[in-house]
């Protein structure tokens, strides 16, 4: 799966990836996923940038990250990942 591969590549620890609701629009279907992960602030930025460069269109909503651990820099991250499926 793409999110898992990108998480590993950018040293993010994927906690959960849960299918949410789908919302039909005029020309596409919006599918949401609840994501929890952990990592450093910079690795999170690299992960999100790599996600934005994918062929498939993704959007991130409600990004929340916790206070980084002073020793490791690790923090908890949650967000809603939106994927779009074209109605063909």
Helical percentage = 10-25%
Task: Give the H and E element order.
Answer: HEEHEE
Q: What oligomeric state is this? A: single chain
Which residues sit in consecutive blocks of at least 5 with pLDDT less than 50? none
Structural class, from secondary structure content? alpha+beta
Cα Rg: 14 Å
Task: Explain the overall architecture.
23% of the residues lie in helices and 50% in strands. With 88 residues, the protein is an alpha+beta fold. A hairpin with a 3-residue loop joins strand 1 and strand 2. The longest helix has 12 residues, at 41-52. The mean pLDDT is 95.
Salient structural properties:
88 residues, alpha+beta, 4 strands, 50% strand, elongated
Itemize the secondary structure elements and their pairings:
Elements: H1 2-9, E1 13-24, E2 28-39, H2 41-52, E3 58-65, E4 75-86
Antiparallel strand pairs: 1-2, 2-4, 3-4
What can be said about this structure in brief?
Helices cover 23% and strands 50% of the residues. It has 88 residues and is of the alpha+beta class.
């Amino acid at each position: 799966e793409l999110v898992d591969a990108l998480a590993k590549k950018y040293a993010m620890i994927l906690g959960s990836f849960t299918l949410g609701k789908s919302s039909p629009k005029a020309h596409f279907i919006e599918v949401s996923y609840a994501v929890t992960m952990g990592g450093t602030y910079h690795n999170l930025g690299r992960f999100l940038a790599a996600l934005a460069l994918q062929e498939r269109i993704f959007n991130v909503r409600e990004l929340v990250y916790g206070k980084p651990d002073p020793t490791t820099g690790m923090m908890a991250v949650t967000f809603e990942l939106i994927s779009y499926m074209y109605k063909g």
